[in-house]
Here is the input.
Amino acid sequence: MTNIKEEPLHIILVFGQKKIPIHLDISSDDESKFITVEHLSNKVYKETKVEPSCQKLIYKGKALFKTDDSNSLKEPISAFGIHNGDRIMLLARKLEPADATEKPSQAKKKKDSEVTDQQLNEVDNTTLQQRLEDVQSEVEKICLRCDELVKDSQRISESLALKSCKRSFVLLHEDSMKLLERVDAIHSSNNEEARKLKKSIVGSLQVQLDICEKEIGDLSEKLLDD
Here is the structure.
């Protein structure tokens, strides 16, 4: 019987201000019939050199896999509703290199430090909610600023003003990415309400990023026409 494999898939990886075309397919010697999250993660590594353990891949506000859950890598990406031409966002986490020569006392000290960091991450619900609300407040300011810039971009025509507006969108894009990384660092796994708020914030930021990227592209075209 013929082993029918899933059709190739073309997506766009958004990494900072970069848009990287990603082509996904299944090789003839691959036992899998479906394109999985692992296929995507490996391809992302080839294109960006960001190790899978440092990747946070987000589609429509949802992370595609958890680094501590190997089973999530085996999920078909079709299960997330990803289609040709869709965009997936990559956040890169820093990974500190392990020191193989460290002394036992250093290892113990490092372990104690890790425990302390873990305890610090386990904030109470009130603090967690406040942190997310603080980020949400900053997102709302970005949304207002973005609306103002869109209106400005529609009425200006002089080259200098267009360049200034484009630069403002670039800075707004950078601020949105920083907020996205900040909210990603907030752990909300044990709080359903906080998890929903976090997902809503991520969705809002992705909308702003889309708007910024579109306006940057449109303004670049206007500047070329001048």
Residues 24 and 215 are 29 Å apart (CA to CA).
